[in-house]
Amino acid sequence: MTIGVDDDESAFSPLENNKGLAESWLRICGRLKGEVGEVEYRTWLTQIALGPIDGDEITLLLPTRFLRDWVRSQYGDRLSELWHSEIPSLRRVELQVARPGDPAPLQVADVAPASVTAAPATEDSTAGTKPVPEVRSDLVTALDSRFTFETFVVGKPNEFAYACARRVAEKPSSVGFNPLFLYGGVGLGKTHLMHAIGAELVRSGNVSVAYMSAEKFMYRFIAAIRSQSTIEFKEQLRSVDVLMIDDLQFLIGKDNTQEEFFHTFNALVDAGRQIVVSADKSPSDLSGLEDRLRTRLGCGMVADIHATTFELRISILEAKAAASGVVVPGKVLEFLAHKITSNVRELEGALNRLIAHANLFGRPVTLEATQDVLHDILKAHDRRVTIEEIQKKVAEHWNIRLTDMSSARRARNVARPRQVAMYLAKQLTSRSLPEIGRKFGNRDHTTVMHAVQRVTELMERDAAFAEDVELMRRMLES
Ligand code: ADP
Ligand code: MG
């Protein structure tokens, strides 16, 4: 069976007229309603009012800060996607708290659910097989069509998890692979792999798949308790062939929800259905999970996704650049892979920004343009250097004791490296002058300011000294 969103990019240009905009919004609401279900839709999404559109950005307004934050965290990405599919030139959805006089929400109370449909199975796939099970659309978060096995770049850090995911997609519920527990840090591809499993199963037909984040699971469970429909909720969940729960760590400390998940889990596994779970840690490290749940989670296949390597980052960048059709020189890819080491999401974000920029201005991507366009991102990454690291490296380099960074000694051979360390702390971290001063034996911010000036002057006058300081900077940045 298919669960998906048909990306019908209609030909009209709603940018020109408000009516078109309102129609787009109604269609988006219809889709969202279909995806998240009636209760959730009414609780959160009917409160959104349409704000102004400006270039590639549209503003949506919410009555309170709490609602804005909640809608942003729960539906922000989806809203962006949906707006983008309505109006391809829209790149950003800005959520703001409404002020007096701002427009009120449209009357969308009876927007019909749309688009997330359990599409009828094709004739031949139903021939002689069991009927396609009904999956309530409110159990399903639409799978993101970009996240497939084809678009997942495999390398050392993720090859095992990838192989396990493929195996589950080919042969769900096989012995040894149920549950499949994927874990790893943020932005390393857990959600991508889960969606890929879902997409593959859906493509092969005849399998009902439910995918949701643990947070959503909890929310739906609580909503079911409130509306006294827990039995229905349980039945729905227990009717799927494959249940995927993303970011299980959110269930930590939520005892009732954990209990419910545990029972659902057991019922499904006992009935020979497949479970796929992701989390940021391994089952044994997820402290706060009930022991019996932890034990069961570790019973199938546990696969971790490791931090990316330089090689994998390069491969990912190459694949994404090629897919975008924009020529990105190897030097730029290397620069990015070198600078942005945290995770794939940030790497991808940086590359997307470069590509958007290149498309917008029709200029080739160069190293210089990259540094310029990604100025803020690169700076944020440079900020990861700590003052302690700077002090340590500088002390080693100039052969002084680390304690001298905060000592009162004023001999030149000690004072100069200390000034260099202060200078680098100012350049490479986002700390303020007083904060830096405190880390150097509670010195005054004017001392730090003086050190920065002094080192800058010296660098201008003394090329060898400047080279030394630059070397330190490069070492610390890499
Ligand atoms: P997680 O769920 O582990 O936090 P995601 O699956 O959301 O991470 O991945 C973050 C982003 O990085 C997504 O856009 C995803 O497509 C991309 N990504 C992660 N790993 C890979 C990979 N190996 N190949 C291609 N894209 C990847
Ligand atoms: Mg994720």
Describe the protein in words.
- It is found in: Cytoplasm.
- Residues 359-478 are annotated as: Domain IV, binds dsDNA.
- The chain is an alpha/beta fold and 478 residues long.
- It folds into four domains: 2-97, GMP Synthetase, Chain A, domain 3 (2-Layer Sandwich), CATH 3.30.300; 134-305, P-loop containing nucleotide triphosphate hydrolases (Rossmann fold); 310-380, Helicase, Ruva Protein, domain 3 (Orthogonal Bundle); 387-477, DnaA protein, C-terminal DNA-binding domain (Chromosomal Replication Initiator Protein Dnaa, Chain: A).
- 52% of the residues lie in helices and 10% in strands.
- The strands form three sheets. A five-stranded parallel sheet has the order 7-8-9-6-10, with helices on both faces. Strands 2-3-4 form a three-stranded mixed sheet, with helices on one face. It has a two-stranded antiparallel sheet with strand order 1-5.
- Helix 1 packs across helix 2.
- The radius of gyration is 27 Å and the shape is globular.
- Residues 1-16 and 107-138 have low confidence and may be disordered.
- The site of adenosine-5'-diphosphate has 17 residues, from helix 6 and helix 13.
Q: What is the helix content?
A: 40-55%
Number of domains: 4
CATH architecture verdict of the largest domain: 3-Layer(aba) Sandwich
Order of helices and strands: EHHEEHEEHHEHEHHEHEHEHHHHHHHHHH
Region (Domain IV, binds dsDNA): 359-478
GO molecular function, one term: ATP binding
Organism: Acetobacter syzygii
Keywords: ATP-binding, Cytoplasm, DNA replication, DNA-binding, Lipid-binding, Nucleotide-binding
